[in-house]
From TrEMBL:
Enzyme class: lyase
Name of this chain's protein: HCOMODA/2-hydroxy-3-carboxy-muconic semialdehyde decarboxylase
GO cellular component, one term: cytosol
EC number: 4.1.1.-
Superkingdom as given in the UniProt entry: Bacteria
Pfam families with a match to the protein in the record: Aldolase_II
Keywords: Lyase, Metal-binding
Organism: Microbacterium marinum
Residue spans crossing the bilayer: none
InterPro entries assigned: Aldolase_class_II_sugar_metab (IPR050197), Aldolase_II/adducin_N (IPR001303), Aldolase_II/adducin_N_sf (IPR036409)
GO biological process, one term: pentose catabolic process
GO molecular function, one term: aldehyde-lyase activity
Length: 207
């Protein structure tokens, strides 16, 4: 994940290329929206995801990118990921899916290796909170680190609930109005979840 630099909106902060569970404050790099950095340590290859979303969305202050296996089925099937649970009302009625073949054809490694690909992904995201990436993963954005993390966590849990309900024979999704109302209510409760997730992370536990 990354956060926009609070002192300079044309830069963002993200770990150097490292497994997330190993990141310490010394591992944070400052990177420009075009993916360049004065830091000579290796950076994440997919830093262009973050830079181009910050460039396209002035409202976004934090970005999460994940390869969650729970989300991938909705990136490769015809069933849209949609809000079926009030905790994920921000998903709306259909999460957009980025198709990398539309940008670079059918022989890529599916990774966002350039600013051009990052810009195409940001265009697919549009004004949404979450975008799926076909056969790859997803991005979640927010106006703060807690909101972006909460959206990533609850998008994943919503995906699992939607699959489970599908196995039971189907489900009732939230209407757009229900999703928007639930999202607004939950935004007022972000701190409660964030504080325990942060404490768990400091103890080396997952959320
Ligand atoms: Zn990725």
């Amino acid at each position: 994940m990354s956060v926009r630099d609070p002192d300079d909106p044309s830069r963002f902060l993200i770990s150097r290329n490292l497994a997330p569970g190993l990141v310490t404050p010394d591992d944070i790099q400052v990177i420009g929206l075009d993916g360049t950095t004065a830091d000579d340590r290796p950076s994440y290859l997919e830093r262009f995801i973050h830079g181009e979303i910050y460039r396209a969305r002035a409202d976004v202050q934090a970005v999460v990118h994940s390869h969650s296996a729970s989300m991938v089925p909705f990136s490769i099937s015809r069933t849209p990921l949609q809000a079926v649970w009030h905790m994920a009302g921000f998903l709306g009625e259909a999460v957009p899916v980025f198709e990398i073949r539309d940008s670079v054809g059918s022989s890529s490694d599916l990774l966002i290796r350039s600013g051009s690909l990052g810009a195409d992904l940001a265009a697919t995201l549009g004004g949404a909170a979450v975008a799926l990436m076909r056969g790859h993963g997803f991005v979640a954005v927010g106006d703060s680190i807690p909101q972006a993390v909460a959206r990533a966590v609850y998008a994943d849990l919503n995906a699992r609930a939607q699959v489970t309900a599908g196995q039971l024979g189907g489900y009732t999704a939230l209407t757009a109005e229900e999703g928007a109302a639930a999202a607004e209510s939950n935004n007022g409760q972000l701190t409660r979840a964030w504080e325990i997730w942060r404490a768990n992370a400091r103890r080396g536990e997952s959320v």
